[in-house]
């Protein structure tokens, strides 16, 4: 009986202590909620803590960023897993969960939630993980795996839906396949095309690209938000199989401009069989991202180029990016 009381006391302390520790924690906490209708909602949790009712412990309050996951096994009955390995059967005290998403604040009924997973941004602050995007093939269709000009064997590449000229993607992954808090907004990039395997570097990422739909022209943008604070090298890939059709990129973070660079205007970008800086890609070193700052890539139209049908176009375009810490 004495050992049972000691074990119970330790469990109570383990559950209660994080709630006090997180009271002044300014780090945002990301949650991913799988709903019973098959939908998924990803965003920042509005509340800093959740209240639960436990048959073993009574009412408890636990900081959200000390929760690993919640599996809702029945109506208002859930399996709670904490970051330190504790598991407990609980019921939510509150009836709704409020989440800040890319489309505004939403309040979800607890009964509509199948599962909830938590990833505190603090988990990623000291991470050396890379983040990769293959633009062009459409969400879920990338064949790119492993390194490009940077990276390692087996690296994961995200592919995104560029939507109707202004679209934001979340629920993405780092290069090692772990969940990433980074969200990607694509503006004026809803067109997609391919290079038909004609590039010297046989990388699937370089074989397709996004551009303004119907060659409607103008600048395009890629905006990365919720980037873990740190100093990065940013690799931007952009060229078509036509020698003069290149990428033109300007990078800034919270008003700090890191310059403007272009990929090659010559045939070398097409014929090179290895990655060459300033040919198929450009690199922006020492890009500093602070807490809550967005990294913005302004994509200017490339060179005027004659394309199929004899038309002359100058498109903003991008094949891929790598953000390497």
Number of helices: 2
What's the level 1 CATH class of the largest domain?
Mainly Beta
Radius of gyration: 23 Å
**Number of distinct beta strands:** 25
Assembly form of the protein: single chain
- CATH-defined topology of the largest domain: Jelly Rolls
User: Average pLDDT value?
Assistant: 86
Q: Within the largest sheet, what's the order of strands? A: 4-3-7-6-5-10-1-2-8-9
In terms of DSSP E residues, the strand content is 35-45%
Class computed from helices, strands and strand pairing: mainly beta
Low-confidence stretches: 1-27, 122-127
List the helices and strands and how they pair.
Blueprint: H1 2-21, E1 29-35, E2 40-45, E3 49-54, E4 58-63, E5 67-74, E6 77-82, E7 87-92, E8 96-101, E9 104-109, E10 113-120, E11 131-134, E12 158-159, E13 166-169, E14 183-187, E15 191-194, E16 208-211, E17 220-225, E18 230-237, E19 248-253, E20 256-262, H2 268-271, E21 281-289, E22 295-300, E23 305-306, E24 312-313, E25 320-324
Parallel strand pairs: 11-12
Antiparallel strand pairs: 1-2, 1-10, 2-8, 3-4, 3-7, 5-6, 5-10, 6-7, 8-9, 11-25, 13-14, 14-17, 15-16, 17-22, 18-21, 18-25, 19-20, 19-22, 23-24
């Amino acid at each position: 009986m004495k050992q049972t009381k000691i074990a119970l006391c330790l469990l109570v302390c383990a559950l209660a202590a994080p709630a006090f520790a997180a009271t002044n924690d300014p780090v945002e906490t990301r949650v991913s909620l799988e709903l019973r209708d098959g939908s998924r909602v990803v965003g920042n949790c509005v509340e800093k803590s959740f209240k639960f009712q436990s048959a073993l412990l009574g009412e408890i309050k636990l900081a959200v960023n000390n929760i690993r996951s919640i599996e809702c096994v029945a109506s208002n009955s859930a399996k709670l897993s904490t970051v330190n390995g504790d598991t407990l059967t609980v019921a939510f005290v509150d009836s709704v969960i409020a989440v800040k998403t890319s489309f505004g604040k939403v309040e979800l009924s607890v009964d509509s939630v199948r599962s909830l997973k938590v990833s505190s941004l603090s988990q990623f602050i000291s991470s050396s993980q890379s983040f990769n995007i293959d633009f062009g093939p459409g969400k879920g269709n990338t064949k790119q795996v492993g390194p490009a000009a940077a990276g390692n064997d087996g690296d994961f590449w995200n592919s995104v839906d560029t939507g109707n000229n202004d679209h934001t993607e979340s629920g993405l992954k780092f290069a090692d396949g772990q969940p990433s808090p980074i969200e990607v907004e694509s503006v004026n990039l809803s067109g997609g095309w391919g290079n038909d395997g004609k590039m010297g570097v046989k990388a699937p990422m370089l074989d397709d690209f996004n551009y303004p739909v119907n060659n409607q022209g103008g600048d395009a943008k890629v905006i990365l938000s919720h980037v873990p604070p740190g100093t990065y090298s940013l690799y931007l890939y952009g060229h078509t199989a036509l020698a003069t059709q290149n990428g033109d990129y300007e990078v800034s973070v919270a008003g700090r401009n890191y310059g403007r660079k272009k990929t090659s205007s010559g045939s070398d970008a097409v014929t090179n069989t290895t990655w060459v800086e300033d040919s198929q890609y450009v690199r922006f070193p020492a890009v500093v991202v602070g807490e809550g700052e967005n990294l913005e890539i302004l994509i200017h139209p490339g060179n005027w180029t004659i394309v199929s049908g004899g038309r002359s176009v100058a498109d903003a375009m991008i094949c891929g990016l790598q953000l390497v810490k």
